[in-house]
Amino acid sequence: MSRIGKKPITLPAAVEVTLDGGVVNIKGPKGSLSVTLHPAVKATLMSEPRAIHMSVQDENSKEQKALWGLMRQLVNNQVEGVQKHFEKSLEFIGVGFKVALAGTDTLNIEVGFSHPVVFKAPKGIDLKVEKQIVTISGADKQLVGETAAQIRAIKPPEPYKGKGIKYTTETIRRKAGKAATKGA
After folding, report:
1. Is pLDDT at 5 greater than 80 in this prediction?
2. Which of 71, 101, 126, 174 has its CA 20 to 30 Å from the CA of residue 48?
3. What ranges do the domains of the chain cover?
4. Cα–Cα distance measured from residue 101 to residue 23, given in angstroms and rounded to the nearest whole number
5. What end-to-end distance do the CA atoms of the chain give, in Å?
6. Residue 118 CB contacts under 8 Å (≥ 6 apart), including other chains
7. CATH number of the 86-167 domain
8. CATH superfamily of the domain spanning 9-81
């Protein structure tokens, strides 16, 4: 039996959930999201402890146990996201590296290229810039992480000087440069 899959997802009072066949629709104060379940996984809405209970057709199947835990966690992330946004922060490190917000969803990024890079955030993502730190937030955890990864991919940090775009929680393993030799 899947340890994660068998846990019920408790629903806060501000979150509304509707089950429509294989689709779970979740609505809360921060937005509305939906998850399409795998055909082997079934969701049941419980009214008394106000929770969602997930189940599978065959509890002994290894593939279905994995899908059970995955689908439960995806629905749980959506329930968390509609009541409290997920956040990721990126830090720009380097001489002359600048980032500015143009409008509400467009970043102008200068990271040592001959031209500034313009990044347009997808719908449902909020951007905030403070000095050299960009904070990405949104209700969909997967979309927040993917957006942060796309921005980081513009100029990943390099190991010699540490210049580039990195997560604020990330540690860059530094490498030693060329060593000077004696008596060459």
Report:
1. yes
2. 71
3. 9-81, 86-167
4. 36
5. 67
6. 102, 106, 107, 108, 109
7. 3.90.930.12
8. Ribosomal protein L6 (3.90.930.12)
